[in-house]
Amino acid sequence: MILPIYTYGHPVLRTQCSHVTQSYHDLEKLIDNMFETMYNANGIGISAPQVGLSINLFVIDLSVLAEDDPSVKDVKEVFINPKIISIYGDESTYNEGCLSIPGIRSDVLRKSKVEIEYFDANFIKHRTKIDGIYARVFLHEYDHLNKTLFIDYLSGQEKHNLNRKLNSIKKGKYSINYPTYSEK
Ligand code: ZN
User: Fold this and answer.
1) From ligand 1's centre to the CA of 164, what distance in Å?
2) Distance between CA atoms of residues 171 and 40, nearest Å
3) Mean pLDDT for the stretch of residues 122-126
4) Residues noted as catalytic
């Protein structure tokens, strides 16, 4: 089932997420719905707050990027209660966008490598090191669980330049070809 994506201005995107337990109601179905919602919006990652739920869960599928980066061909994963063990490596910029902030993209500086711990859809614990676009998307989605959006990293001037667009999104004025929910 395709869920509406909550957009910029909705308080759920600024709410700290909480721990997910194995007995969480209909977790398997929720994960399926999140993948379906993400694919429908041509996204490569989506977090629970973006579908209105303040829980530590996101999903990623980078296979669509395999043409540019064959190393991510098989990166399709569910992240439950993810943790960052360490973050390191050179900083790089990448032009990020977000399904909750339609029509806006911006260069964001992030470190390139991260060691992470998480539980998968079967509640099996993993500890691994990721880098490149995988680390980039992980960090973007991880931020969502901690009420942070990529636009928070922009300079005052950059943010000022986007103000009008951001205000329009807040008012629900944007055109996008997937279902959204902007009512407060
Ligand atoms: Zn996002």
Assistant:
1) 19
2) 23
3) 97
4) 141
Cβ count within 10 A of residue 124? 9
Query: How many A from CA of 81 to the centre of ligand 1?
Result: 17
Q: How many residues does the chain have?
A: 184
Instruction: Tell me the average pLDDT of the chain.
Output: 96
Note if the pTM is more than 0.90: yes
Given this model, what pLDDT does residue 88 score? 98
DSSP string, the chain: -PPPEE-TT-GGGGS--BPPPTT-TTHHHHHHHHHHHHHHTT-SEEEGGGGT--BSEEEEE-GGGTTT-GGGTT-EEEEEEEEEEEEEEEEEEEEEE-TTSTT-EEEEEEEEEEEEEEE-TT--EEEEEEEHHHHHHHHHHHHHHTT--GGGGS-HHHHHHHHHHHHHHHTT----SS-EE---
**Cα first-last separation, the chain:** 23
Give the Å distance between the CA of 140 and the centre of ligand 1.
6
Cβ–Cβ < 8 Å for 100, 8: yes
Interval 25-69: pLDDT, tens: 999 999 999 999 999 999 999 999 999 999 999 999 999 999 999
Checking if the pLDDT of 182 tops 90, the result is no
